[in-house]
Amino acid sequence: DVKVTQSSRYLVKRTGEKVFLECVQDMDHENMFWYRQDPGLGLRLIYFSYDVKMKEKGDIPEGYSVSREKKERFSLILESASTNQTSMYLCASTGTVYGYTFGSGTRLTVV
Amino acid sequence: EDQVTQSPEALRLQEGESSSLNCSYTVSGLRGLFWYRQDPGKGPEFLFTLYSAGEEKEKERLKATLTKKESFLHITAPKPEDSATYLCAVHGGGDYKLSFGAGTTVTVRA
Predict the structure, then answer these.
(1) Beta strands in B8-94 (DSSP E)
(2) A40–chain B nearest CA distance, Å
(3) pLDDT (tens digit, 9 = 90+) per residue, B33-44?
């Protein structure tokens, strides 16, 4: 089975801090995604990547950046964390659109 | 822009009380509709993919159906372990992005 691992389940950071969320998948998938999930809003796409060193903006990229230096790892970076970035962050990967696999999520609280 | 609306937001059922969840969508050229289950504090888990109107898929007490405008997830004789949030998503473009609804949270009481 594909495994998508997010490095932290819970994080608490201070406003203004630079925050790194890490995601690793073990099935050689080309496509990786970062979503945030908020009550009543569902999952919203932040950034995605189709290949190493490639990135595309999703629907809500403001305040975020990403890095994909290796195929298996896709990092989400909050350049200067703000309280409105408190959320559940979900990473997903797929070899085709028919097989999205999600990580367990990182619940980030910015205080 | 693809749009997905799920209803109701929340559903409370008695064990054994069958019901249906709705997913209405607007997409230019549906390439697939997906149902996921999400337990509290966890990532979504894949349930079904539907590709064309009239298609049906079943798994245990769950059955998903698809029309040209909406999909239904039917839960037959639910058990407490079916309690979860059920997410609907559509794929309408030439890339691999999915657009998700806000989900329906189902609570099944024993």
Answers:
(1) 10-14, 19-26, 32-38, 45-50, 56-59, 62-66, 70-75, 84-91
(2) 6
(3) 999 999 998 999
